[in-house]
């Protein structure tokens, strides 16, 4: 067996694990790893901020299903990664963050840029570890990939002291391979009971969460729904798990990212089969309202998720794909045509308007144009704010891994670097970023990275010149405080900012001009190989429909005949 620099062994591990692109910033304390990386097949994208690197690796991981990798040096590089680690942890995204570190013998002496990043990262990782011996290097990284992928996926941090990086180890890539990852299968008895409960229900729903997409189980979900004739709802993280133009699609329930008809369908259901869903508070709202009159079956790969928010009537532990496949074997189609027709009636009668012609532009019109222009295979990337809420309420999605959103942590600035990761993973796909003006400014320096490496995508900015979500949240406090961004009075001109990065941009003020601007942006991004901005100026006082619970939606948007529908034959 050959003795080689231990960082060369690490790079061979990365290659064999399917990593073709990493995102990072070199620094003195991580240079031995970079020395090994330069002779590999792996492409390195030099980002402008370590948080941007984590979000780019996150986007790469969401688009591929593989483990994303980001690299930084010691000290503030690691602390800058914490937001990205939290985001990946919250959304179950497999990712490895690699940090450089001061020499082992200096860590207790407050050496330059020496910080205990392992302890800092532990609350937001599945595993945080410092490499102690060069001989451990390939095996620590092998285990990191296994941990990141297994069970409920998530991030790992590996800290590399500079002296350990300089060491050597015995390693033969011919004698090494990725470690197996267990896909826990459900108990047969639990599957039989779940199938019986669904069969006995009159108005069942399947609720598909992000776990269905992570498990690559969209096909199994569709086959089960069609075999049972059971309508399917999705959570925000589950968008794309089920085609939204399918007869059995039942919308999205929730208090922010939701459809009116999805809330109506949910409130009318009597059983919910939730697969890979966390029951997050933005989805459930008031748990008394959410649970009332419904039986719940909760399927999750992580046993400790079951019962965390509320105790279900049945818990099933297992990987989403075999669970759905096993349920399909027990599927007995019921007489649910009346229920399916009622879902269709809700969809026809409870749609929100999106055909506004007013000036200033109303946000729903923007999403109507987005839906009409971009194809089914387009990958959309969006983050947090009123624009995310409108996106969840109005955007249509048809395929898994085509709607990427930082659902739980919600860091502003996530979209641009995440889109870079997506486009690096799938250069052939059209990638569209839906962003707010304020979020864009958080990590807009990453536009320079996309320009440098010729990573093209379309940015659609919804600009209301406010911190819109906060302004809306301030209404009950009878104030409008510290939310005005004062564009034109010393603020940022986003078109000029893009042009300063060498990227085309256009501002739109009239609804009739949106379609043409999207067409121009798509063609220009493809032709020039650059990110292209379409900034849409929308009305400043635009609000998104949402409430404190599902019941509160009646206050803003009355829903006809919800629980009072006569289901007697």
UniProtKB/TrEMBL annotation:
<dbReference type="GO" id="GO:0050660">
    <property type="term" value="F:flavin adenine dinucleotide binding"/>
</dbReference>
<dbReference type="InterPro" id="IPR012000">
    <property type="entry name" value="Thiamin_PyroP_enz_cen_dom"/>
</dbReference>
<dbReference type="GO" id="GO:0009028">
    <property type="term" value="F:tartronate-semialdehyde synthase activity"/>
</dbReference>
<feature type="domain" description="Thiamine pyrophosphate enzyme central">
    <location>
        <begin position="191"/>
        <end position="327"/>
    </location>
</feature>
<dbReference type="InterPro" id="IPR029035">
    <property type="entry name" value="DHS-like_NAD/FAD-binding_dom"/>
</dbReference>
<dbReference type="GO" id="GO:0003984">
    <property type="term" value="F:acetolactate synthase activity"/>
</dbReference>
<dbReference type="GO" id="GO:0009099">
    <property type="term" value="P:L-valine biosynthetic process"/>
</dbReference>
<dbReference type="InterPro" id="IPR029061">
    <property type="entry name" value="THDP-binding"/>
</dbReference>
<feature type="domain" description="Thiamine pyrophosphate enzyme N-terminal TPP-binding">
    <location>
        <begin position="8"/>
        <end position="119"/>
    </location>
</feature>
<dbReference type="GO" id="GO:0030976">
    <property type="term" value="F:thiamine pyrophosphate binding"/>
</dbReference>
<dbReference type="InterPro" id="IPR045229">
    <property type="entry name" value="TPP_enz"/>
</dbReference>
<dbReference type="GO" id="GO:0009097">
    <property type="term" value="P:isoleucine biosynthetic process"/>
</dbReference>
<dbReference type="GO" id="GO:0005948">
    <property type="term" value="C:acetolactate synthase complex"/>
</dbReference>
<dbReference type="Pfam" id="PF02775">
    <property type="entry name" value="TPP_enzyme_C"/>
</dbReference>
<keyword id="KW-0786">Thiamine pyrophosphate</keyword>
<feature type="domain" description="Thiamine pyrophosphate enzyme TPP-binding">
    <location>
        <begin position="384"/>
        <end position="536"/>
    </location>
</feature>
<dbReference type="InterPro" id="IPR011766">
    <property type="entry name" value="TPP_enzyme_TPP-bd"/>
</dbReference>
<dbReference type="Pfam" id="PF02776">
    <property type="entry name" value="TPP_enzyme_N"/>
</dbReference>
<comment type="similarity">
    <text>Belongs to the TPP enzyme family.</text>
</comment>
<dbReference type="Pfam" id="PF00205">
    <property type="entry name" value="TPP_enzyme_M"/>
</dbReference>
<protein>
    <submittedName>
        <fullName>Tartronate-semialdehyde synthase</fullName>
        <ecNumber>4.1.1.47</ecNumber>
    </submittedName>
</protein>
<keyword id="KW-0456">Lyase</keyword>
<dbReference type="InterPro" id="IPR012001">
    <property type="entry name" value="Thiamin_PyroP_enz_TPP-bd_dom"/>
</dbReference>
<dbReference type="GO" id="GO:0000287">
    <property type="term" value="F:magnesium ion binding"/>
</dbReference>
